[in-house]
Recover the amino acids of this structure.
């Protein structure tokens, strides 16, 4: 299928099975329902096609995670634990399988892009992934969906130069861990400054290690930052770095918790920002990455803003791909 007007949403109602009882935890099943209801009611509705993911095979999880963590994750979940390591990382009996499905959505997405999906491909998944480390969960994340998609892209399709661009309000420490010593990859993150925000990494001085020097571009913004500052960084440093790096594929860690109504960060973004980001990302994917771009949901906890943000982002992406 090469119809550029189609928007592919990779999701499944099985993501709801990662249900951590009660609404005191922000990473709730209703997040995806809010997104899907909004998309189905809006002007993009006739363009949507929904695709079910399958669980990622263990060998792809092992491109980033340790065997020890995967065994521990499965074991703790099946033993009936309600969280792993910290109250943030709440689990239920189904969480391991659901997390494998979220990682599998990214893999399915890469296949779709490579097989000529044409229009935007968006993985509406949970649990999110960018804080997950090789050996441990963090910040609601258990498996690093974006890193696993990037490694799959490299190994399955030999697209070695992969860039992950992350506009979630928080720094993706797990993605940084994956890429900081790897000269073939690039991680770009725009996030709330680590002195004020979880997880406390992502200072501008963190640029990579050893052979991976230059593989990280961290752009921290002070609390209160607005759209204008994000777009100035995107049109300046980010565009320059992408032009130099020339990625063969782009993975977008798409988080919507920088919205001014989302109390998970002190950032002050508007919904319109996500349209502008979609437009730029679509344009750069065409200019620098042969049109190969996959977006994967990360954060976003104020449900109406999350749903509107995703819709605006997809409209921005779609305008370019249909353009
Ligand atoms: Zn976040």
């Amino acid at each position: 299928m090469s119809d550029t007007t189609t928007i592919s949403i990779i999701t499944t109602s099985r993501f709801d099975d990662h249900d951590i009882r009660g609404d005191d935890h922000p990473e709730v099943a209703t997040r995806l329902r809010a997104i899907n209801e909004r998309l189905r009611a809006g002007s993009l509705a006739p363009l949507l096609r929904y695709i079910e993911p399958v669980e990622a095979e263990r060998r792809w999880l092992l491109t980033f995670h340790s065997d020890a963590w995967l065994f521990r994750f499965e074991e703790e979940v099946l033993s009936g634990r309600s969280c792993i390591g910290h109250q943030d990382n709440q689990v239920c009996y189904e969480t391991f399988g659901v997390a494998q499905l979220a990682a599998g959505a990214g893999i399915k997405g890469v296949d779709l892009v490579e097989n000529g999906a044409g229009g935007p491909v968006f993985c509406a998944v949970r649990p999110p992934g960018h804080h997950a480390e090789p050996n441990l969960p963090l910040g609601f994340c258990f498996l690093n969906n974006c890193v696993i998609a990037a490694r799959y892209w490299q190994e399955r399709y030999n697209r070695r130069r992969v860039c992950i661009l992350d506009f979630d309000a928080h720094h993706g420490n797990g993605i940084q861990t994956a890429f900081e010593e790897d000269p073939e990859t690039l991680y770009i993150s725009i996030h709330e400054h680590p002195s004020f925000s979880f997880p406390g990494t992502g200072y501008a001085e963190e640029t990579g290690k050893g052979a991976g020097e230059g593989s990280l571009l961290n752009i921290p913004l002070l609390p209160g930052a607005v759209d204008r500052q994000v777009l100035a960084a995107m049109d300046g440093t980010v565009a320059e770095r992408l032009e130099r790096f020339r990625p063969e594929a782009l993975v977008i860690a798409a988080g919507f918790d920088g919205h001014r109504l989302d109390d998970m960060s002190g950032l002050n973004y508007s919904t319109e920002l996500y349209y502008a980001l979609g437009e730029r990302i679509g344009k750069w994917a065409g200019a620098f990455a042969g049109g190969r771009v996959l977006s994967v949901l990360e954060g976003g906890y104020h449900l109406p803003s999350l749903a509107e943000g995703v819709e605006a982002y997809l409209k921005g992406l779609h305008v370019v791909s249909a353009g």
Summary: The chain has a mean pLDDT of 96. The CA atoms of residues 100 and 293 lie 21 Å apart. The longest helix spans residues 95-114. The longest strand covers residues 185-192.
